[in-house]
Amino acid sequence: MRTQSGFTLIELVITVAVIATMSAIAVPNLLRWIDNHKLASAVSDLMLVMQHARIRAAKEHANVVITFDPDGDGDIDGNYLVFVDNGINPKTRWTREPDERIIHRGSMPQGIEMQEVSFAGGVPRTRFNTMGLPNGFGGHVYLRNPRNNYLGIHMNLNGNPRVVSSDSGEKGSWK
User: Fold this and answer.
1) What is the C-alpha separation between 65 and 10, in angstroms, rounded?
2) CATH code of 126's domain
3) pLDDT, tens only, 91-124
4) Residue 96 placed within a domain
């Protein structure tokens, strides 16, 4: 007599059903985690860029500008650009001239958008002077992921950035 080994059809169907059920539970949680990780990573990257610009301004004794293009439809080829402003032409201060050195150029990860960018005077840019201090009274950058989770950066008048969050993304809800 031969002994047959293997799985029966019922055993295979039950195994596949269990795997399918576990996948249906795990995949949405994994996708939510990925979106939240992208948002946190984008905020962390922006924070480093701001700190780096501040340090470069003080170290090189130069004005360093960070210009943001929240919609990505401007002429900076990305969502933000950091450059050394030589200040030669006072009319184009804040705007990069061809001879001004680019320190960093960046874009938001796919699915992450800049909800709001506002610095001194309500403009989407800031500048660190030769002592590493920002112009005006600081400002903020607010980001949002596809699941409507919000993180941002507040920069105080000394140029120190800190991460903030909001449940709704509305003004006054950031903490």
Assistant:
1) 67
2) 3.55.40.10
3) 777 788 888 999 999 999 999 999 999 998 888 9
4) yes
**Residue-wise pLDDT tens digits, 116-169:** 999 988 889 999 999 999 988 889 999 999 999 999 999 999 999 999 999 999
Which secondary-structure segment (H or E) carries 1? none
- Residue of 105, 99, 101 whose CA lies nearest to 80: 105
Residue 31 lies in a domain: yes
* DSSP state, residue 123: B
Rounded alpha-carbon distances, angstroms, from residue 33 to 30, 38, 80, 110, 147: 5, 9, 25, 15, 10
pTM, entire model: 0.84
d(Cα 81, Cα 117) in Å, to the nearest integer?
14
Domain carrying residue 120: 9-166
User: Which amino acid makes up residue 2?
Assistant: R
